[in-house]
Design brief:
The chain is of the alpha+beta class. About 40% of the residues lie in helices and about 15% in strands. It has 15 helices and 16 strands. A hairpin with a 2-residue loop joins strand 12 and strand 13.
Length: about 475
C-alpha cells in the first residue's frame, strides 16, 4: 500500500504580507527543502537567486537545503511563505508612488527626483521578473507611466532637453558642434519651475533664455497631479511673438523616455528688461507709457490674457513687451471691464464687451478702480484717444492673419507632442478659444467703426484727446 502524499501549502506574499497566490503541493515522499524550492521555481517562475522561503516568519537558509522538511521543523500540511527577494524594492516603489501622487506641497525638483527613483526601482524589478511572478505587469506599468509626468520638473531633465534642442538647432543653422556652447543658471522669481541658460550658436552671439515648464508646472505643487500642457498657452506665446509683443519663443519637448506630460517654453531675454524696462519701473512721464497701457488692455480684452503683473510686461525701446503670461480660465471672467476716471465714472464704453481676466493689467494697470501708479495716466486719456491708439495697434498687429500663423505653428507642435507620447489638453478647448478670440476681435472692430471721431489712419481727434501725459501730470 502506497503511503499518503506529503502535502505542503505555499503562499506568495510581498514585503507587507499581502497575499498574491496560494498552492497546494503534493510529494510522494517527504521532500527536502531543496526539492521544495525546485518545485516552487518551476511553478511560479522565480529564479533561484531571488527565491526566499519563510516558515513562521523565519527565513529558511541554504545550509539546510539538503535536510528534510520535518528535520527543520516543517510538518505535513504546514504553510511555507514564498517571497521574491526584491519584494522590499516593490515596497519602496509603492512608498515613493504614494508620496509622489498624494503630497500637495512638493517642489518640481522633489517630484522629479521621486519619479526618477520609481523609474530606477521599476527597471530593477522588471529585470528580476518580479512583476511576472506577482502578476503585477499592468499595475506597475501604469505606475511608471503616471510617475513619468513628474520628471519634467527635474533640473537635470530640463537641462538635458534644452541642450539637445539648441544643439540640434545649431546643426540646422549649419553650425558645427565646436561653435555651440550652453551654460545654465537658476531661474529667479515667478511661479513656474525652470532654469535660465546662455546659448552660443553658429553666427550668433551668446543669448540668454528663460526656460519654464508649461504654466501648470508650478514651482510648488498645489495638487498631487500635474495637468497636461494646454494648446492655448502654446498659441498665445506664438501669437504674441508674431505680433511683435513677445520676444522670440522656443517650444522644447522633453527627451524621449522621460517626462510625458511636460512642455518647456524658452523665451529670449529682452535687453535690459530686469534692470530698467519692467512695467513696475515705468512712471507717468516715461515715453509712450499711455500707449503701452492701452495696447496691453486691448490684448487682455481680446485674448483673455492673465498673469500680466508688473514684472511680466514692460517695454523695449518704449514699445510694449510681454515676457510671461497665460490664458485665463472661463471661470475667471467674472466681471465687465471698464475704464474709469478718478471718480469711478466710466469714460469708455469700448471695454463693456470684454471681460476681466484672472489677474493682470485689467485690474492692476488699466482699470481706474484701484490705486496704481498708472490710474491717473489712464484717466487722463479721452475716449477717442484710446480708440485711436487701439485702431492703430490693430492695424499694426494684423491680428487675423497672425492668428492663422500661430494656429499653424501650434498644430505642428501638437503633432510632434503626440508623436513623442506627450499628453495634451483636449483640442476642443483650443478650437473654442480660437473662435472666441476671433469673435472678440470682430466685435472690437465693429465698435471702432461705429465712431467717426478719427480718420482711417487714426490721426484725427481733439487736442484734449491727444494729451501730453507729462503736461497733465
Amino acid at each position: 500500500m502506497e503511503p499518503d502524499p506529503f502535502v505542503i501549502f505555499i503562499e506568495l506574499r510581498d514585503e507587507d504580507e499581502k497575499l498574491y497566490k496560494t498552492e497546494e503541493l503534493e510529494f510522494n515522499n517527504e521532500p527536502t527543502l531543496r526539492a521544495l524550492k525546485d518545485r516552487i521555481i518551476r511553478l511560479w517562475d522565480i529564479e533561484a537567486d531571488y527565491l526566499h522561503l519563510f516558515y513562521k516568519e523565519i527565513r529558511l537558509i541554504r545550509i539546510v537545503g539538503s535536510m528534510s522538511l520535518t528535520n527543520i521543523g516543517i510538518n505535513e500540511r504546514d504553510t511555507v511563505v514564498v517571497k521574491h527577494s526584491y519584494a522590499v524594492n516593490w515596497a519602496s516603489l509603492n512608498v515613493c508612488y504614494k508620496f509622489l501622487t498624494e503630497r500637495q506641497d512638493l517642489l518640481p525638483e522633489d517630484q522629479g527626483n521621486t519619479a526618477s527613483q520609481i523609474k530606477d526601482l521599476y527597471a530593477m524589478l522588471d529585470e528580476a521578473n518580479f512583476f511576472i511572478v506577482y502578476s503585477l505587469e499592468h499595475k506597475a506599468h501604469v505606475m511608471l507611466m503616471q510617475s513619468r509626468k513628474y520628471l519634467g520638473g527635474m533640473q537635470a531633465i530640463i537641462q538635458t532637453s534644452v541642450q539637445a534642442y539648441f544643439s540640434q538647432l545649431n546643426r540646422k543653422c549649419e553650425g558645427k558642434d565646436a561653435e555651440f556652447d550652453i551654460k545654465f543658471g537658476d531661474k529667479k522669481g515667478g511661479t513656474h519651475g525652470g532654469i535660465t541658460c546662455f546659448v552660443k550658436m553658429h553666427d550668433m552671439d551668446s543669448r540668454k533664455y528663460y526656460v519654464k515648464t508649461h504654466w501648470s508646472g508650478m514651482k510648488r505643487s498645489h495638487s498631487p497631479d500635474t495637468p497636461a500642457p494646454n494648446l492655448r498657452e502654446i498659441f498665445i506665446y506664438a501669437l504674441l511673438e508674431e505680433l511683435g509683443v513677445c520676444p522670440r519663443v522656443h517650444f522644447i519637448l522633453p527627451l524621449p523616455g522621460t517626462a510625458n506630460k511636460t512642455l518647456y517654453i524658452a523665451t529670449e531675454e529682452v535687453p535690459g528688461f530686469e534692470e530698467k524696462t519692467r512695467m513696475d519701473h515705468l512712471n507717468a512721464k516715461t515715453e509712450n507709457t499711455l500707449h503701452m497701457l492701452i495696447e496691453l488692455h486691448v490684448l487682455v480684452c481680446i485674448f483673455r490674457i492673465a498673469d500680466l503683473h508688473s514684472t511680466n510686461c514692460g517695454h523695449y525701446n518704449h514699445e510694449l513687451r510681454i515676457i510671461d503670461c497665460n490664458v485665463g480660465d472661463r471661470s475667471a471672467r467674472s466681471g465687465v471691464l471698464k475704464l474709469c476716471d478718478s471718480k469711478k465714472t466710466t469714460v469708455s464704453s469700448l471695454e463693456t464687451y470684454f471681460y476681466r481676466g484672472a489677474s493682470g493689467p485689467a485690474n492692476i494697470f488699466v482699470s481706474g478702480d484701484i490705486t496704481t501708479p498708472f490710474r491717473h495716466v489712464m484717466a487722463s486719456a479721452g475716449e477717442s484717444y484710446r480708440r485711436k491708439v487701439t485702431k492703430n495697434a490693430l492695424k499694426r498687429w494684423n491680428i487675423l492673419q497672425n492668428i492663422e500663423r500661430a494656429v499653424n505653428r501650434t498644430n505642428k507642435l501638437k503633432e510632434k507632442m503626440k508623436d513623442a507620447g506627450i499628453e495634451i489638453v483636449s483640442t476642443d478647448d483650443f478650437e473654442e478659444y480660437i473662435g472666441e478670440i476671433k469673435a472678440n476681435h470682430n466685435e472690437l472692430l465693429i465698435l471702432l467703426n461705429d465712431r467717426e471721431d478719427f480718420t482711417d489712419d487714426g490721426t484725427q481727434g481733439s487736442e484734449d484727446d491727444n494729451i501730453d501725459v507729462e503736461k497733465r501730470e
